[in-house]
TrEMBL record:
<keyword id="KW-0460">Magnesium</keyword>
<feature type="binding site">
    <location>
        <begin position="131"/>
        <end position="134"/>
    </location>
    <ligand>
        <name>CTP</name>
    </ligand>
</feature>
<feature type="binding site">
    <location>
        <position position="152"/>
    </location>
    <ligand>
        <name>CTP</name>
    </ligand>
</feature>
<dbReference type="GO" id="GO:0010181">
    <property type="term" value="F:FMN binding"/>
</dbReference>
<keyword id="KW-0479">Metal-binding</keyword>
<dbReference type="GO" id="GO:0015941">
    <property type="term" value="P:pantothenate catabolic process"/>
</dbReference>
<comment type="function">
    <text>Catalyzes two steps in the biosynthesis of coenzyme A. In the first step cysteine is conjugated to 4'-phosphopantothenate to form 4-phosphopantothenoylcysteine, in the latter compound is decarboxylated to form 4'-phosphopantotheine.</text>
</comment>
<protein>
    <recommendedName>
        <fullName>Coenzyme A biosynthesis bifunctional protein CoaBC</fullName>
        <ecNumber>4.1.1.36</ecNumber>
        <ecNumber>6.3.2.5</ecNumber>
    </recommendedName>
</protein>
<feature type="binding site">
    <location>
        <position position="166"/>
    </location>
    <ligand>
        <name>CTP</name>
    </ligand>
</feature>
<keyword id="KW-0288">FMN</keyword>
<feature type="region of interest" description="Phosphopantothenate--cysteine ligase">
    <location>
        <begin position="15"/>
        <end position="227"/>
    </location>
</feature>
<keyword id="KW-0436">Ligase</keyword>
<keyword id="KW-0511">Multifunctional enzyme</keyword>
<keyword id="KW-0285">Flavoprotein</keyword>
<comment type="pathway">
    <text>Cofactor biosynthesis; coenzyme A biosynthesis; CoA from (R)-pantothenate: step 2/5.</text>
</comment>
<dbReference type="GO" id="GO:0015937">
    <property type="term" value="P:coenzyme A biosynthetic process"/>
</dbReference>
<dbReference type="GO" id="GO:0004632">
    <property type="term" value="F:phosphopantothenate--cysteine ligase activity"/>
</dbReference>
Length: 227
């Protein structure tokens, strides 16, 4: 179905979405990131906009064009993504956390490029944990009753077991699970929706089709919550 004919199931709703990888600096020319292309998050932003929502996209570094009608703010690190989400979260009806957020950042990244030494010695990196953006928003939701929080989980094994337990650990009503090597950089994917009733498999399809199905599932659920 083409965009203009998508049912406007999210008309009047404000939706905040994170997408893409984050990038943690080691020095001004090097850093640590992950394999997310941002395609799924951007597809979700497009599908939410097609469904009539007012969409804000907080994006890590990607090579993708901003979907039509979507307001986008670019960030690099997980801390910057956390700050941008907290700046925008007030008044949002739904938060969809698609970004592959780096779990750790380098403590004290070097201000100048780290140079190789002649003796073959290597730098030692120390890490600390980044803030958990989704868990922080979910804590807020437990007090205010909104926004409705949707998480994503890319696993490499045991998806059904890990997805169900991750949804509960994060304290969110809906989690979308997928297997990392089936999705990263690809145009299509298979996803599993986890909610309080169990799980439902959405068979392999292109990411825009899956994003539209996900948006329709979210719309049904927030209707019930009557946000
Ligand atoms: N997430 C987040 N902030 C983080 C880490 C994760 O907002 N610092 C969000 C992701 O955007 C995703 C969800 O949490 O929606 C699950 O991310 P995932 O990496 O699968 O879970 P973790 O809790 O980080 O557990 P692990 O990586 O150990 O599996
Ligand atoms: Ca993680």
């Amino acid at each position: 179905m083409i965009a203009a004919f998508q049912p406007k199931v999210l008309a009047g709703k404000r939706i905040l979405i994170t997408a893409g990888p984050t990038f943690e600096a080691i020095d001004p020319v090097r850093g640590i990131t992950n394999l997310s292309s941002g395609k799924m998050g951007y597809a979700v932003a497009r599908a939410a906009r097609e469904a009539g929502a007012d969409v804000t996209l907080i994006s890590g570094p990607t090579a993708l064009a901003t979907p039509f009608g979507v307001a986008r703010q670019n960030v690099k690190s997980a801390q910057q993504m956390f700050d941008a989400v907290m700046d925008h979260i007030g008044g949002q009806h739904v938060f969809i956390s698609v970004a592959a957020v780096a779990d750790w950042k380098v403590v004290n990244p070097s201000e100048q490029k780290v140079k190789k030494t002649g003796d073959g010695s290597v730098p030692e990196l120390k890490f600390e944990q980044n803030p958990d953006i989704l868990a922080s928003v979910a804590t807020r939701t437990s007090l205010a009753g909104w926004p409705y929080c949707v998480g994503f989980a890319a696993e490499s094994e045991n998806l059904i077991e890990y997805g169900a337990s991750k949804r509960e650990r994060k304290g969110i009503p809906l989690l979308v699970g997928n297997i990392g090597h089936n999705t990263f950089g690809q145009d299509d994917n298979t996803i599993i929706l986890f909610d309080e009733h169990g799980h439902t498999i959405l068979p392999r399809a292109d990411k825009l089709t899956l994003a539209r199905q996900l948006i329709s599932e979210i719309a049904k659920r927030i209707d019930k919550n009557s946000l």
